[in-house]
Amino acid sequence: MIAIYELPFWSAFLIFILFSFIGWICEVIYVGVTSAHKFVNRGFLHGPICPVYGFGGVVILMLPPSLYATWIPLFLASMILCTTVEYFVSWLMEKLFHTRWWDYSHYKIQLNGRICLLNSILFGFLGVVVIHFVYPLMTDLLNSLGQTWISISGMIILAVLSVDIFFTVRKLVDFANVMKKLKDFGETLNSHYGQEEWFKKDSFMDMINSVIERAENRKEEFSQKILEKIEKLQNLHLPSVESFLKKFPSIKSAKYREELNMIKEKVHQKIELSKKIKNNEK
Predict the structure, then answer these.
(1) For site-directed labelling of 130, which of 58, 72, 235, 250 has its Cα 20 to 30 A away?
(2) Model-level pTM?
(3) Pick from 26, 16, 22, 23: which is nearest to 161 by CA?
(4) Could you tell me if 119 and 127 are in contact, meaning their C-beta atoms sit under 8 angstroms apart?
(5) Could you read off the pLDDT of 89-139 as tens digits, one per residue?
């Protein structure tokens, strides 16, 4: 069996894409069956791929070819390598965007909520399946295409993927900016009214609601700018933020915990309202 680093660049790239696509399918099926009970695009990107699975698959194929014919050593190596990839990706995404996109804290055996034993075991089994069954099928498929079509397909997919990554990164940056603006506004409210007895500051929503209640009878105590911002928050509509929350309901943020909880609550209310409307229509 040929190691992935011995393949031409475009062949290796298509292997990465195929693993990313298979991972995306697994995520969609798992979430659809276990929790959402409907189709949810679980990838960060708009397209049907989860690159973290692509990297995991490629990492497995970077193992020494001497392991390819084994079972238990291959299982253990795949388990360790893929778990390392998952931990690193979780850490990197949190450092870049101050948000943890998945969390395994509720599992009995886990590490910092980034990885868990159950997933690690699944990664081990997947590594064995990939090497013994999936990878040979992939190489057979690529061989049937021929190098010319492999190169053309790879270039087209890379171009589309680059555009997808650009818009996804922009959404992620917008997401981080929204959280920062909400946190800054909360700090503004706290600096203005933190010493007032009526001001509640246990959570971001408590601060907002206490100002709204106070403003009902004493509107003159508040600047028009602050009241306008609160009114906008009450009618907040953030499609990009809401789409991430639907894809990653366990998303957490140490830096923007209260602000994220507020957005989650609004998304939950919107979903419940949508359900009521559908039930009434029936």
Answers:
(1) 250
(2) 0.81
(3) 16
(4) no
(5) 999 988 887 788 888 998 999 999 999 999 999 999 989 999 999 999 999
